[in-house]
Amino acid sequence: MIIGTGMDLCDMRRIEKSIERFGARFLERVFTETERTRAERRVGQARIGAYAKRWAAKEACAKALGTGFAAGVFHSCIGVGNLPSGQPVLTLTGGAATRLADMVPAGMVGHLHLSMTDDTPYALAQVMIEALPRL
């Protein structure tokens, strides 16, 4: 059963301006080390797109959790990674993990679905939270 959905559209130019203005302070506050490493392997718009997609994924996840960035849910609590196949995945820690646990009905486990894309100047992410029977 679907217990949460969220979507976010991000203007890549906004992320680019934040990086130019605040540099490492912005990147370290919002993105995990893994996210920064992945984005920094790219150049130009591909680098900005990598950051913007992850920003959109974090925003979409906060919406799917039903809190936005409140109640202990911060950008840094939502990690965006990739499986060896390339499929994007979310990893929640701190307040985001606590909120997910609170949402999931007894006897079930939460599963996060993430889809991301970018096409200059926009990045889009969609998150669905599914509750599945515990095996």
Automatic annotation (TrEMBL):
User: One MF term in GO for this entry?
Assistant: holo-[acyl-carrier-protein] synthase activity
Enzyme's top EC category: transferase
Q: What is its EC number?
A: 2.7.8.7
Could you say which cofactors this protein requires? Mg(2+)
Localisation per UniProt entry: Cytoplasm
Q: What family does the Swiss-Prot or TrEMBL record give for this protein?
A: Belongs to the P-Pant transferase superfamily. AcpS family.
What is this protein's function? Transfers the 4'-phosphopantetheine moiety from coenzyme A to a Ser of acyl-carrier-protein.
Q: What is this protein called?
A: Holo-[acyl-carrier-protein] synthase
State the organism of origin: Acetobacter aceti
